[in-house]
Amino acid sequence: MGTAARPETIHDFGGFPEALYQLRYPAPGAPEVAERAAALIEEAGMRVGRDPERGLDHGTWIPLLLMYPKADIPVAQIAVQPHRDPAHHAKLGAALRPLREEGVLIIGSGTFTHNLRAAFTLMRAGRADAELPFTESFVAWIAERVAAGETEALLAYRDRAPFARENHPTDEHFLPFFVALGAGTPGKPGERWHQSRDWGMAMDCFAFP
Question: Which has the closest alpha carbon to 132: 86, 105, 163, 96?
């Protein structure tokens, strides 16, 4: 849990154009919100580490740069836990649910599909509009489960969704989705707000009321 009052911009990626490394997102931190979130997580029986020096990594500042380009919204970041499963992250989201009634926007930021090796192949070939053969059936399956409110199926996506491993060789870019899912109101299905592709990867966005 990042508790910095003035979090730095972290460029935790490699192999991209130099212009990306020049970007900064100087949003103020939200240490009080971070502490409130940490307390809720602990009340749910989970441990929390607090880091007053941690900045905002690209999973946080890149979407916020597009959403709030003035960087005037206080931000508290919770690190993804790649060694834990979707159910753990959904429990984490459920613990944070009270924050919604306190004016806090909970965002689970990743990429809806994330096979970077396949995406780089398209980049090198200059095929920005090309599709990856395993993406659409996976996206459709997830969207159908979200619309139907089938939470248990979603939590088991790794075993049930078509081409799950091709779209997510590792879990970490999809785990934030489950935090947002868990923070939603039980019994209310989610809605897809956005659907697009970038170098073959899905950039779909869902909201959970």
Answer: 163
46's CB contacts (< 8 A; 6+ apart) are 91, 92, 95
pLDDT digits 0-9 by tens, 107-120: 999 999 999 888 88
CA pair distance 140, 137, nearest whole angstrom: 5
Residues in the chain: 209
* pLDDT, tens digit (0-9, with 9 covering 90-100), for 59-68: 999 999 999 9
State which H helix or E strand residue 34 sits in: helix 31-43
Contact 171, 154 (CB under 8 A): no
Residue 149 gets the label, from left (phi > 0), alpha (psi -120 to 50) or beta, of left
- Smallest CA-to-CA distance from 156 within 170, 142, 166, 137 is with 142
For residue 14, the Cα-to-chain-centroid distance in whole angstroms is 19
State mean pLDDT over 175-187.
Answer: 97
Q: What percent of the chain has pLDDT over 90?
A: 87
Cα-only R_g, the chain: 17
- Sorted by sequence, the CB contacts under 8 Å of residue 37 that are 6+ apart come out as 1, 76, 78, 96, 99
